[in-house]
Amino acid sequence: MDIKPLTAGLSVSAQINAAEIKAIKDAGFRAIICNRPDGEGADQPTFNEIATAAKKAGLEAAYLPIVSGKVTDDDAKAFDKSLTELPGPVLAYCRTGTRSATLWSLAQANQRNLADILAATKAAGYDMAGVVRRIVNGGKTPTDTGDASYEVVIVGAGAGGIAAAASLKARKPGLEIAIIDPADIHYYQPGWTMVGGGVFGAEETARTMASLIPKGVHWIKSAVAAFEPKNNAVILDGCRVVKYTRLIVCPGIKLDWNKIEGLVETLGQNGVTSNYRYDLAPYTWKLVEGLKEGRAIFTQPPMPIKCAGAPQKAMYLSGDAWSRRGVLKDIDIQFNNAGGVLFGVKEYVPALMDYVKKYEAHLNFFHNLVAVDGPAKKAWFDVAKPDTPVERIEMDFDMMHVCPQQTAPDFIRVSPLADAAGWVDVDQSTLRHKTYDNIWSLGDVMNAPNAKTMAAARIQAPVVVENIVADMAGRSAVAQYNGYGSCPLTVERGKIVLAEFGYGGKLLPSFPKAIIDGTKPSRAAWFLKEKLLPPIYWKGMLKGREWMAKPEKVTVK
């Protein structure tokens, strides 16, 4: 007997027999639902046998037989009614448990979001791909698929999605392209560090989405609910279906603020802020300007995160501001990093350490933020040093800059496109999906082992586009991605350590050392970040102009 929990109140299993009823009772169950019709198998006990044994054990039993592969909308309603009426927890069973899991999924369609339903069933070992459209449709069988069809569909209108759309249009102007994204506003997120440092105004980092979607590209303003790659279909909220010949997946990354107890309730007040949100970055600068003494904590969660240098950039710019105002000596800077190193590419660490010393910052490795009490100005960290038990410590603060834990978006994690960790599973060179050869991915959502930065997406977009164009012509991949990513580390106002590297930490500088030596702080790199990169983003990358982003050709050996 293999019992698999879906919720605290419901578990499912394959066929049970009367001899197992006692064990079911001892496991805490109070009721049983049979979803298998009598006589389906020669060795199958009848429902009456199960019900008789259940009654003797003090369990209630209900019979809701479902023919395999024929779960109706009314069946799902009846199952939900049984769960409401029976005492819990309940064990539902059929031949394998699939029908029971399907009934629950459809019954929960109006009570839980799709991602939660798919995550629960996937964890129990059941694939609900066949009923995704019905779940999205409120548990009811769709009567009108409303298909729209495009040659290329792009999921996500962030940096990577718009750049890919613009680059495709530049190469093939007549191509029918649709880009799917529910957002009204598009953000230049690399600018938020500068907002938090008092350099940019927040409004400089935002544009309307409508003004950025390339001309001739269809904008479908909706959220994606699920993928059906075997049917070349994307399912939208509301159960609309968009078909594609080729698909690009780039919806970005999920900032999981709720992973830290108490954080959501205190963000933007009580001295708790984050440059990872448009509305909070100005509050960071307000706190920096107002702090004259006390403790300032800067946190970094476990990898992966977007722009791995951003948590320490906030620390450096804050330390620089306090140094310029002459209050640094009265401020205790603590950098609490869940990882074990300051930066993952060793060549940049010496320059960064000079600034750690300049700002008298304390580096606390293996410290992961787990809870915050904003009004009390207290934070708790789990300290997980190698080969030692995890210890929870408490720290007071006057200001705290938080970097949240990050995961792939829910609808990606539970989809057929995801690897075991939840990221879109691609070949790290061609960025083509490993299973579905008409799907590509770029940006923060895919699982290539590169830094998740805007600069990486700038290089990835033309790689994906050139390989799609080659595929349309019946050719193999022609472009390859070398893992390039860039992290302009703002170590003080006016100077940046320009980290540029690829797979394996290989240094990939864009400029000769005489112009910018990325391993040392430079004013030239600051000028690049402050003055050049924003227009390169708005007027270059998002317009399909691939300045300094020429794809590397595939090497034929």
Blueprint (SSEs and pairs):
Elements lengths: L3 E2 L4 E4 L7 H6 L4 E4 L12 H11 L2 E4 L9 H13 L4 E4 L4 H10 L6 H10 L8 H5 L11 E8 L3 H13 L5 E4 L4 E3 L4 H5 L9 E3 L9 E3 L3 E5 L4 E4 L4 E9 L4 E3 L6 H4 L5 E2 L7 H10 L3 E7 L9 H16 L5 E7 L11 H10 L3 E4 L1 E7 L4 E6 L7 E6 L2 E3 L3 E3 L2 H4 L25 E3 L12 H19 L6 E2 L4 E8 L2 E7 L21 H18 L11 E2 L4
Parallel strand pairs: 2-5, 3-4, 3-5, 6-7, 6-13, 7-10, 13-24, 15-22, 16-17, 16-22, 17-18
Antiparallel strand pairs: 1-2, 8-9, 11-12, 12-13, 14-23, 19-20, 20-21, 25-28, 26-27
What's the total count of β strands?
28
Mean pLDDT figure = 93
What about the largest sheet? 7 strands, mixed
The tally of helices reads 15
**Residue ranges: pLDDT <50 for 5 or more in a row?**
none
Shape assignment: globular
Radius of gyration from the CA trace?
27 Å
End-to-end separation in angstroms reads: 54 Å
The CATH topology of the largest domain is FAD/NAD(P)-binding domain
Q: Name the CATH architecture of the largest domain.
A: 3-Layer(bba) Sandwich
The fourth-level CATH homologous superfamily of the largest domain is FAD/NAD(P)-binding domain
**Secondary-structure class:** alpha/beta
Q: How much strand content do the residues show?
A: 15-25%
The domain count comes to 3
Helical content stands at 25-40%
Under CATH at level 1, the class of the largest domain stands as Alpha Beta
